[in-house]
Amino acid sequence: MGEGYLTTKLDTITNWARANAAWPMPMGLACCAIEMMAFAGPRYDVSRFGSEVFRFSPRQSDVMIVAGWCSYKMSHAIRRIWDQMPDPKWCIAMGACASTGGMHRCYGVVQGVDNFLPVDAYISGCPPRPDAVIHALMKIQDKIKTEHSVLLDT
Amino acid sequence: MSKELQLSDPLQKVIDALTDEFFDKIIEIYQSSGDTFVRFEADATLDLCKYLRDEQGFVYLCDIFGIDRYTNEERFEVVYNLVSLRDRTRLFLKIRCEEENPKVDSVYSLWPSANWFEREVYDMFGIRFRNHPDHRRIYMPEDYKYFPLRKEFPLLGIPGSIELPSTTPDPD
Q: Pick from B154, B156, B164: which is nearest to A75 by CB?
């Protein structure tokens, strides 16, 4: 920037930083996880959006991607991991099964992870293409950029 | 009894020997989709299975599953999927039991692989197995009150019967 300077709002610069470093918490439960790996891989290259760092630790991640059908047994583990993620955090329900139960219309599968998680973005498809996951991530980035984080946090 | 069946030579020998040995226990022998089924009286389970394992080479119990026929009499059926490694053939055994207190003999003493198969049949249909070493549910919660693969069980389950996690996290 040389001799120059810029002025901005604290909210704006916080949101800019958060939106471009949304590290995913991969919750790969079924075949959607394969597409989620493609989403992170070099062809679709999500590092363009700052989300290439798949942290297998909830304490270092910002976006949980629930990829696949979720059984009642698994729901407790997912919720526990979600509760361990530090705020602010976001959640993507990837694919038909995570969004609504999908073809697993039966007694053992939770009919949509929004029964126990606050989902920000739903992705349709079975499984969705990696582009669709990138789309969901961009929607979440848009959402992050509209948040009033500093004012609400204090 | 087995005249109209289209059987391979080794399986024909097995069926002939089986009908000789257990002629009063076998109810029917039939073929469906290329598989051979033998249905017999449930009280002969252990004798007949032991005979097949020791004398006819069916050393491998591939699967056990239940069927809910939803009939007034002999509602439940238990099917054993046996494989003979000697003859490279497969044979299905069937027994039926009543809706009230369904109970059959466990074949765990013959094939240890029956342990989890029988637990699964119990979990899904509520059919109990005599002399099973570890008679618990295998998939559903231990205090679950229903048997999901029975016909009267609703597709989506009983609402609220399995707990979902709390959405208000513990402050600690």
A: B164
